[in-house]
Amino acid sequence: MGKNFNFFILIDPRDLSRYDGWMKIKILTLLSLLSLSPLSYSLESVTTTEEQELTKTNMVRKVNWKEGYIWPEVRILTVLYHLPQDNLNEFLNFETHKTYIPDMLESKIIKKISANELDVYFEMEMPWPVKKTTHVTHNLITKNTDGSYTLKWNLVKADMLSATDGFMRFYPYKGKTLLEYVSHIVPNSSLASMFKNRVADDVEKSVKKIVKHLNNTLNKRENLTATPQSNNNL
Asked: Above pLDDT 90, what percent of the chain?
């Protein structure tokens, strides 16, 4: 899977006279191939099959049942309309999560360690017989050499979890963003096995809501910026 880079080879057609016939053919063939197929690099975490599935459905879901764990690790790939940094910045408005993420009752930054490191409190509604659960995660934001951004989290404390590890990575992708979302929650409740078969569906549902929010919010912001302001002096 690739992000395309265009390479321009500056050769004056008059310079071709300096080469013999066979060399001319090789140069022209190379130029035609470059114009038709821009060179690219691969995102190592995404397979060719996953890219094909993304093209068809705009979402790929992988469920990994790890030995010794009740709940699976869930990995989602999907495409967002806007650029990586814009999507990340909007998602970092944690206080708004309760307005669009399913079952989220409260979310807020409780400790800002640095510009790219913070602790966040979450309160979530749970199915019967559990009413709700609370937890705090440590979050680290990094910019990667490939132009992507990563938000990685792990558990600080919780009332019903032993661990929650995961990350969101926003890759540059065809002028848009490829979102990779990975979550692995380790519950410490005796009731956890009751919900194990719905974990993947719940994660996918949440990611779909996140995608919808990011796309709609950034579209509206973009439209507002593009709309010329009326001049009341006229």
From this structure: 62
* CB within 8 Å of 88: residues ≥ 6 apart: 141, 149, 151, 168, 170
The model's confidence at residue 166, banded by pLDDT at 50, 70 and 90, is: very high
Q: Are residues 21 and 92 in the same domain?
A: no
Q: Are 125 and 98 in contact (CB under 8 A)?
A: no
Strands (E), the chain: 2-5, 39-42, 59-64, 73-80, 104-114, 117-125, 132-143, 149-158, 161-173, 176-187
C-beta of residue 154 within 8 angstroms of C-beta of residue 164: yes
pLDDT tens profile 200-212: 999 999 999 999 9
Residues 120 and 151 sit within 8 Å (Cβ to Cβ): no
Taking Cα atoms as reference points, which of 151, 99, 144 lies closest to residue 120? 151
Looking at the fold, whether 37 and 111 belong to one and the same domain comes out as: no
Instruction: Note whether residue 89 is domain-resident.
Output: yes
Domain match, 181 and 100 both: yes
- What's this model's pTM, rounded to 2 decimal places? 0.77
Q: Check: CB of residue 74 under 8 Å from CB of residue 203.
A: yes
Q: Enumerate residues 6+ apart whose C-beta is below 8 A from 28.
A: 16
95-to-25, 66, 100, 107, 203 alpha-carbon distances in Å = 62, 32, 11, 5, 20
The torsion angle over the Cα atoms of residues 97, 136, 171 and 47, rounded to 10 degrees, is: -110
pLDDT digits (tens, 9 = 90+) for 30-45: 434 333 333 333 466 7
The answer to whether the CB of 84 falls within 8 A of the CB of 149 is: yes
Residues 62 and 46: their CA atoms lie apart, in Å, by: 12
DSSP code of 195?
Answer: G
